[in-house]
TrEMBL record:
<feature type="transmembrane region" description="Helical">
    <location>
        <begin position="195"/>
        <end position="216"/>
    </location>
</feature>
<feature type="transmembrane region" description="Helical">
    <location>
        <begin position="79"/>
        <end position="99"/>
    </location>
</feature>
<feature type="transmembrane region" description="Helical">
    <location>
        <begin position="167"/>
        <end position="189"/>
    </location>
</feature>
<keyword id="KW-1133">Transmembrane helix</keyword>
<keyword id="KW-0812">Transmembrane</keyword>
<dbReference type="InterPro" id="IPR052522">
    <property type="entry name" value="ABC-2_transport_permease"/>
</dbReference>
<comment type="similarity">
    <text>Belongs to the ABC-2 integral membrane protein family.</text>
</comment>
<keyword id="KW-0813">Transport</keyword>
<feature type="domain" description="ABC transmembrane type-2">
    <location>
        <begin position="42"/>
        <end position="278"/>
    </location>
</feature>
<feature type="transmembrane region" description="Helical">
    <location>
        <begin position="128"/>
        <end position="155"/>
    </location>
</feature>
<dbReference type="InterPro" id="IPR000412">
    <property type="entry name" value="ABC_2_transport"/>
</dbReference>
<feature type="transmembrane region" description="Helical">
    <location>
        <begin position="48"/>
        <end position="67"/>
    </location>
</feature>
<keyword id="KW-0472">Membrane</keyword>
<dbReference type="InterPro" id="IPR047817">
    <property type="entry name" value="ABC2_TM_bact-type"/>
</dbReference>
<dbReference type="InterPro" id="IPR013525">
    <property type="entry name" value="ABC2_TM"/>
</dbReference>
<dbReference type="Pfam" id="PF01061">
    <property type="entry name" value="ABC2_membrane"/>
</dbReference>
<protein>
    <recommendedName>
        <fullName>Transport permease protein</fullName>
    </recommendedName>
</protein>
Length: 283
């Protein structure tokens, strides 16, 4: 009588070395993704609504001080200054928060000694990366929606996108790009100062010098070339096209989308390779 349950249990157990999860571990992937989302939702006043207020204040300051009653010429069309900078402020908030979310997860685990919580569960490298990036992109869209609501209150119908699918596409591509960059930073960084350095010396300059507050068509040819070397320019220009159906620059909007997509693929492969190797994570 006592041998029957044990033998039955042995028959149900897989042979040593045979994986019980043969394809995608959807349960583990969902669990880690929900953990990442719940982490920033628990402090949503700081992670979602505070960025919306900051972007709204930037809108008020710039429209008041630099042309509240003026207009900007983009692609031969005259656009009200407030309507011109609103899409840039929305996507800028999305980019900053996508980076902040993904650069925090692994880094805080390394600092607090809880990195094993990410490395030990039965998740593949691709599943781990997908959950981290998915959480960051989710936060970016939550922030983008909050900022858009603030802009809608400020601008009214001028803040309604003319082509929402294009805006969503560039928001997704841009958020994924910054999420991958955040994962790279959390792998490389060893303290919060390292993440802050990337934010202050890489993310902030690329964001502010990407045409958020001005049209690059008004720049000298040399500075236009520098702007076109900035990948953030294509994200902001494409996102603005989704609202206004006008964009500046040499390439059509779909050309910019292909450039950002290519960068996403490159950074995604690099993140995957570093996570799989365990560089600065397992030693």
């Amino acid at each position: 009588m006592t041998d029957q349950p044990s033998s039955l249990a042995q028959n149900q157990m897989p042979a040593p070395g045979v994986p019980t999860i043969r394809n995608v571990n959807w349960g583990g992937l969902k669990t880690l993704y929900v953990k990442e989302v719940r982490r920033f939702f628990k402090v949503q006043l700081q992670t979602i609504w505070a960025p919306a207020m900051s972007q709204l204040l930037l809108m008020v300051v710039f429209t008041t001080a630099l042309g509240g009653r003026g207009s900007v010429s983009v692609g031969g069309a005259s656009i009200a200054f407030a309507a011109f900078i609103a899409p840039g402020l929305i996507v800028m908030g999305m980019l900053n928060n996508a980076f902040a979310n993904s650069s925090f997860s692994l880094l805080v685990g390394k600092i607090q000694g809880t990195i094993v919580d990410y490395l030990m569960p039965p998740l593949s490298t691709a599943e781990l990366l997908a959950a981290l990036v998915g959480g960051a992109v989710t936060r970016a869209f939550c922030v983008g929606f909050a900022v858009w609501l603030a802009m809608l209150l400020f601008l009214g119908s001028a803040a309604i996108p003319a082509n929402p699918l294009v805006a969503i596409l560039f928001g997704l591509l841009g958020s994924a790009l910054l999420a991958f960059l955040g994962v790279l930073t959390s792998i490389w960084g060893e303290k919060f100062d390292h993440a802050a350095a990337v934010t202050n010396f890489v993310i902030a300059p690329l964001t502010l010098l990407s045409g958020t507050f001005y049209s690059v068509d008004r720049l000298a040819p040399a500075f236009q070339a520098v702007s076109h070397a900035n990948p953030f320019f294509y994200i902001i220009s494409g996102f603005r096209y989704g609202f206004l159906e006008v964009s500046d620059g040499y390439l059509p909007v779909w050309g910019g989308a292909l450039i950002v997509l290519a960068l996403d693929i490159v950074l995604g492969v690099l993140c995957y390779a570093l996570l799989k190797s365990g560089w600065k994570l397992k030693n």
